[in-house]
Specification:
- There is one protein chain.
- This protein has twelve helices and 14 strands.
- By secondary structure, it is α+β, with helices and mostly antiparallel strands.
- Helix 1 runs antiparallel to helix 2, helix 6 runs antiparallel to helix 7 and helix 7 packs antiparallel against helix 8.
Length: 585
């Protein structure tokens, strides 16, 4: 089996190269064969027509027939060569130059502007467009017009005004310029469509990155396909009680979650389920073109909720909905100066790809949660069967030592042992709450374990363990806090107080918790010697300095909060702000 695998590995790069270059070569070969066949047909028809009705040329008759016959034989020979050539070469460029020179000679020998071979110049323009797109058309047009103008100027000197037809010369020169301009526009339009298709084919994968980063990449890519400076996506996922809104522009990105009632209705019922665009101001008098299948209809009114952050409402936008098994929403491509109806099908594809990516992101997140849930169950069982049982044994042993030798042990020592036993009991209660929180169906009950009760237990345990006064002041707080805050705040307070007792050698520590606007404010202060630094620093500054309690900072960041530390020789102050309503990522 090993030799086969090595052989396959050796062939793969060749196959990859063919996929990139091979099909491009096949396409060019087909183009050259088509041009070669058209050249034969055009040369044969022209030669037959002037033979059948020899009204023109009137000068250099024999030379013109001879050269045209030679050109026809050249066209046939070139067709045979193209059919048998082994690979890409410079033949297209050489034949293109030869064609322009030959066509110029034919027309010069047959009175230029009046020549029956004028169509050969148009043939050259089409060949340039087929071979090299709009750039080839433009270069060919310059060469052809220059040749035509030089030819006309030469004939005005050779012939008189009666023989040189100035009106036909002007008409045909303008005809060449207009035909070239239209072909250039068509080539640019084709290049733009090809670029859009390539960008659609290169739609970014979801992967396992952070949700905000994935959404930002999706919106940036979708907006780039149509050249929109701004993109907005709004969606709802599964049974989640949120409405997500993500906005992207060249300078910013934001993703927030709102209640389902926000921005309701996102679009009017008449536009719901349809792709639409507005080419002017987005207001109550907007003219909206919407697509229902293959039919375009017009509608007037406010197309988008006034509070939706779509950017500049004085310019147009295009929008399309998406619906998958788990995710539904709508994409808005905004700040487009003059969107056209041909963007509607493209926007529908972008919306469909966006919905598929968000659906995949939702599934990936759910699978990660299932895996995390299984891991939590395993950890909970290990803690319950291991650490918790060991702590129970230690408590029983301490009780036995303290109560079984009352006559031999000093009262102070016995009280000390009982205090340690009580501290272990409190730790067991905390550990049981932690284990219960690891269970997937378990949710803390504020009625039986409110935040104040848990903080008071933390305070008592710390006082027993460290023999130091710890004060707690709990201000007005919401009756129900988010579960992560209820579970995480006591751990943060415990860590902040222990850090102060370990390193600052204070005589007292105080804890204050209260609500301020839409955040929960926590302050842990002491009268010790402070941290190793002096001054007031926020999260970013502490991270840049590489100092401060890193694990506490990580806990705060995991809840979307901010931490600030003020350190002086007279003590330190740790301020934590936890948002009660925040962004969802």
């Amino acid at each position: 089996m090993a030799p086969d695998l090595q052989s396959t590995a050796g062939i793969a790069p060749e196959a990859s190269r063919f996929s990139v270059f091979g099909w491009r070569y096949v396409s060019r070969l087909q183009t050259e064969r088509t041009i070669a066949l058209a050249r034969i047909v055009l040369a044969s028809a022209s030669l037959f027509a002037i033979w059948l009705d020899p009204a023109e040329p009137t000068r250099y008759v024999r030379l013109t027939y001879t050269l045209h016959t030679v050109y026809l034989l050249y066209a046939v020979l070139l067709t045979l060569v193209i059919r048998r050539r082994p690979g890409p070469s410079r033949i297209p460029l050489i034949t293109h130059i030869v064609d322009i020179i030959a066509f110029s000679v034919f027309q010069y020998l047959t009175l230029g502007p009046s020549s029956p071979f004028f169509m050969y110049f148009l043939f050259s323009l089409f060949c340039g467009a087929l071979r090299w797109g709009w750039r080839g058309t433009l270069a060919t047009a310059v060469a052809v017009l220059l040749s035509f103008l030089v030819m006309g100027d030469s004939m005005t000197l050779t012939f008189g005004a009666t023989e040189f037809e100035l009106n036909r010369f002007i008409i045909r020169a303008v005809y060449l310029a207009v035909a070239a301009a239209l072909l250039v526009y068509l080539g640019q339009h084709e290049a733009r469509l090809r670029a859009q298709i390539e960008r659609l084919a290169g739609w970014p994968s979801v992967g396992h990155g952070e949700a905000a980063g994935v959404v930002r990449r999706i919106l940036s890519h979708g907006a780039g396909i149509v050249g929109a400076p701004r993109a907005v996506a709004m969606w709802e996922a599964g049974e989640e009680p949120w409405r997500y809104v993500a906005t992207w522009s060249l300078n910013e990105f934001a993703m927030k979650r709102w209640s389902p009632e926000e921005f309701e209705p996102v679009v009017p019922p008449s536009l719901d389920g349809s792709a639409f665009l507005t080419a002017g101001p987005v207001n109550a008098d907007a003219v909206v073109v919407m697509s229902r299948g293959d039919v375009l209809t017009e509608w007037r009114g406010q197309p988008v909720h006034p509070a939706l952050p779509i950017g500049d409402r004085e310019v147009g936008l295009v929008s399309a909905p998406f619906q998958t098994e788990r995710v539904s929403g709508r994409v808005f491509l905004c700040d487009l100066p003059l969107p056209t109806p041909d963007l509607l099908p493209l926007t529908e594809v972008i919306a469909r790809e966006t919905g598929a990516s968000l659906d995949q992101l939702y599934v990936t997140r759910r699978l990660a949660e299932v895996a995390l849930s299984d891991e939590r169950i395993r950890v909970a069982r290990d803690l319950h069967d291991g650490v918790l049982q060991s702590l129970t044994g230690i408590r029983l042993e301490l009780q036995s030592v303290a109560t079984g030798s009352s006559g031999e042990m000093p009262a102070r020592t016995r009280d000390r042992l009982l205090n340690i036993e009580r501290a272990i009991a409190m730790e067991q209660r905390e550990l049981r709450l932690f284990i219960a929180g690891l269970q997937p169906a378990a949710r803390p009950n504020p009625a039986t374990s409110p935040l104040g009760t848990r903080l008071e237990e933390v305070r008592e345990r710390l006082m027993l363990e460290w023999k130091m006064p710890v004060s707690l002041r709990l201000g007005p707080c919401p009756a129900e806090l988010p579960d992560p805050i209820t579970q995480g705040l006591p751990l943060m307070v415990h860590e902040a107080v222990v850090n102060a007792m370990k390193h600052a050698q204070p005589s007292r520590v105080s804890v204050e918790v209260q609500r301020n606007a839409d955040a929960l404010q926590v302050v842990v202060s002491d009268d010790g010697r402070g941290f190793s630094f002096r001054g007031r620093y926020d999260d970013a500054a502490l991270a840049a300095m590489g100092t401060g309690p890193a694990s506490l900072r990580a806990r705060v960041a995991s809840l979307g909060g901010q931490m600030t530390i003020e350190s002086t020789p007279a003590g330190s102050r740790v301020e934590i702000s936890l948002p009660l309503t925040g962004e969802g990522h």
